[in-house]
Design brief:
By secondary structure, this protein is of the alpha/beta class. The chain folds into two domains: 247 residues, Glycogen Phosphorylase B (Rossmann fold); 176 residues, Rossmann fold (3-Layer(aba) Sandwich). Helices cover 39% and strands 18% of the residues. It has a nine-stranded mixed beta sheet with strand order 3-4-5-2-1-6-7-11-12, sandwiched between helices. The longest helix is centred in the N-terminal third of the chain and has 16 residues. The protein starts with a strand and ends with a helix. This is Glycogen synthase. Belongs to the glycosyltransferase 1 family. Bacterial/plant glycogen synthase subfamily. InterPro entries: Glyco_trans_1, GS/SS, Starch_synth_cat_dom. It holds the Pfam family Glyco_transf_5. Pathway: Glycan biosynthesis; glycogen biosynthesis.
C-alpha cells in the first residue's frame, strides 16, 4: 500500500503536542510492516534547519488566494521519506506551528493550512508535476489537513481517505467570508458540508468528506458522540458511528521510553531493581530545591490548559503536603494556569516546585523520579504521559476519561476517578497514599505498571487493516480486523 500521511507536526523536527509524537512513531511502525508511507509537512523554519539537504522535486499549483509552492523531499536517517510544502510567505515565521512567539494564532492560519491540504490533494490525485509516486490512500490528521479530503471530492477524485481526530476541541473554525479565498464551492457551505454554526470548520470538512474516521482511543471514540464531549459535532459523529465508519485506535509509546537505558536519565532502573529510581528522586528533589523527604513525590508533566484540570490540583495540594507529599510540576500554557501554579509553588516552596516551560530531559527525569503522576483531565483523547509514567514507575492518578480509562488499570497500575472535581481527585490521592503506605502493595503496583507495553506495532496493525478495508483489499491480519470490528463504531451501530 502507498499512503500519504498529512500532518502539521513531526516530532523529529517540530511538535506542539501529542500529534507530533504520533506522526513520528505511527508511520515508522507502518513502514516496518511493509506500508510505503510518506509524510507531508509544512516547511517551518525549524524543519528546514533540522532536515539538512532538501531536494526540490515538484511544483504545486495554487487555487483562489492559495499561492503556488514547491515540494521538497528529505529522508530521515532511518529512511522515512518526508515531503515538505515550501511556501516561505506562509511558514517562515518564528513561534509554534500555529502561532507566534506570543499568545494567539496566526491570523492567516486558514491560508497556511489550506495550502497544506491542497498540496495533499494534488499529490493524492497524481497531478503533481515532477513526482512519480502516487498514493492509493490519504491519511489526514486533525484540522490543519481537514480540507484535503474535501478538495479531493470537489475535484471529482475518488481516492480513499482516512481522517484522524486527535482532539475534537480544536477544529480550525474561520469566518464564512473565507470560502472563496480558499477555493471552497458555495454549495459546500451547508450542514452536509463545511458549515459549522454559520462558520467554516476545517475539522468538520475532514470528517464529513472522509471515508473512514479514527480517533486515538476507543473510549474517546464513544465520548465524541456525546453532547458533553462532541464540541458541537456530536450529531455528525453519531451518524458516522452508526455507519460503522468511526474507529478508536489507541496510540502507542515510543521505544525510547525505557528507564533502563534512557540517556536522559542520570540513574537507570528497571522493575526488578529500583535503586536508580530512588537515587533519581533524591537528585530531582535537590535540583528543584525541595526539602529532603521520604514521602511520595507527585509529578506533573503537562500542557497548562483548562482541559488538563490543574486547577483541581491547587485545591488538593495543601492537604497532600500535610500528609508528607511533594510536587514536581513542569509545563507551559495558559497564563492564568501558569500564574495559579506559580503562586502555589511560592506558598509551599519547600514542598512544591514549578518549572514554567518544557524540557524533554527534565520531563523524563520528573517522571522517573516520581511515585505518582497526576492527570486530572476534564477530557483526554488519548494521552501519552500516563503511558510514559507507568513505564517509569510513576503510578498515574487520573480521571477515567478517553485514553486514560483505556490505559490505566484501576488499583493495579494506577488510580482512576470519575467525578470531575477536586473532591474526586482528593479521594483518588487518598487511595494512592494508602497504597504508598503499604510497601508490598505499592511495589507490586509499580512493577505491574512498569511491565505494561503500549506498542505502536499494535496500532499499526489496526491502521493497516483499516487501510486495506478502505482500499478494498483483503485484510490478512485476522486479529487486527477483529479489533476493528469490536471498535466503538460496532457498538454504536448495534445501539442505533
Amino acid at each position: 500500500m502507498k499512503v500519504l500521511f498529512v500532518t502539521s507536526e513531526f516530532a523529529d523536527f517540530t511538535k506542539a503536542g501529542g500529534l507530533g509524537e504520533v506522526a513520528a512513531s505511527l508511520p515508522r511502525a507502518l513502514k516496518r510492516g511493509g506500508t510505503d508511507i510518506r509524510i507531508l509537512l509544512p516547511a517551518y523554519p525549524e524543519v528546514i534547519a533540522k532536515a539538512g539537504t532538501i531536494s526540490i522535486i515538484a511544483s504545486l499549483p495554487g487555487r483562489a488566494e492559495i499561492e503556488p509552492c514547491f515540494l521538497g523531499e528529505v529522508r530521515t536517517p532511518d529512511g522515512l521519506i518526508l515531503y515538505l510544502v515550501l511556501a516561505p510567505s506562509l511558514y517562515q515565521r518564528g513561534g509554534t506551528p500555529y502561532g507566534g512567539p506570543h499568545a494567539g494564532d496566526w491570523p492567516d492560519n486558514d491560508l497556511r493550512f489550506a495550502r497544506l491540504a491542497l498540496a495533499a490533494a494534488e499529490i493524492a490525485k497524481g497531478q503533481c508535476a515532477g513526482l512519480a509516486w502516487k498514493p492509493n490512500l490519504l491519511h489526514v490528521n486533525d484540522w490543519p489537513g481537514g480540507l484535503a479530503p474535501a478538495y479531493l471530492r470537489w475535484d471529482g477524485a475518488s481516492l480513499p481517505t482516512v481522517f484522524t481526530i486527535h482532539n475534537i476541541a480544536y477544529q480550525g473554525v474561520f469566518n464564512r467570508d473565507r470560502l472563496h479565498g480558499l477555493g471552497i464551492p458555495e454549495a459546500a457551505f451547508h450542514m452536509h458540508g463545511v458549515e459549522f454554526y454559520n462558520r467554516l470548520s476545517f475539522l468538520k470538512a475532514g470528517v464529513f468528506y472522509s471515508d473512514e474516521v479514527t480517533t486515538v482511543s476507543p473510549t474517546y471514540a464513544r465520548e465524541i458522540t456525546t453532547e458533553a464531549l462532541g464540541w458541537g459535532l456530536h450529531g455528525l459523529m453519531q451518524t458516522i458511528a452508526a455507519d460503522g465508519r468511526l474507529v478508536g485506535i489507541l496510540n502507542g509509546l515510543d521505544d525510547s521510553w525505557d528507564p533502563s537505558s534512557d540517556p536522559q536519565l542520570p540513574d537507570h532502573f528497571d522493575s526488578q531493581d529500583l535503586s536508580g529510581k530512588r537515587a533519581l528522586a533524591n537528585l530531582v528533589r535537590t535540583g528543584l530545591c525541595l526539602k529532603p523527604s521520604d514521602g511520595p513525590l507527585f509529578g506533573i508533566v503537562s500542557r497548562l490548559v483548562h482541559q488538563k484540570g490543574l486547577d483541581m490540583v491547587s485545591d488538593v495540594a495543601e492537604a497532600i503536603v500535610q500528609q508528607g507529599g511533594q510536587f514536581a510540576i513542569l509545563g507551559l500554557g495558559d497564563p492564568q494556569t501558569e500564574l495559579l501554579l506559580g503562586r502555589l509553588a511560592r506558598g509551599q516552596h519547600d514542598h512544591i516546585a514549578f518549572l514554567n516551560g518544557f524540557n524533554e530531559a527534565m520531563a523524563r527525569r520528573i517522571l522517573g523520579a516520581s511515585d505518582f503522576c497526576l492527570m486530572p483531565s476534564r477530557f483526554e483523547p488519548c494521552g501519552l504521559v500516563q503511558m510514559q509514567a507507568q513505564r517509569y514507575g510513576a503510578l498515574p492518578i487520573a480521571r477515567a476519561t478517553g485514553g486514560l480509562a483505556d490505559t490505566i488499570e484501576d488499583d493495579a497500575t494506577g488510580f482512576l476517578f470519575t467525578e470531575c472535581s477536586a473532591a474526586g481527585l482528593h479521594a483518588a490521592c487518598q487511595r494512592a497514599l494508602r497504597a504508598y503506605g503499604d510497601p508490598v502493595v505499592f511495589e507490586n503496583m509499580r512493577r505491574a505498571a512498569m511491565c505494561r507495553r503500549f506498542s505502536w506495532s499494535t496500532a499499526a496493525e489496526q491502521y493497516e487493516a483499516l487501510y486495506r478495508r478502505s482500499i478494498g483489499r483483503p485484510v490478512s491480519d485476522t486479529a487486527a480486523l477483529q479489533r476493528l470490528r469490536h471498535s466503538p463504531s460496532s457498538e454504536l451501530r448495534a445501539v442505533a
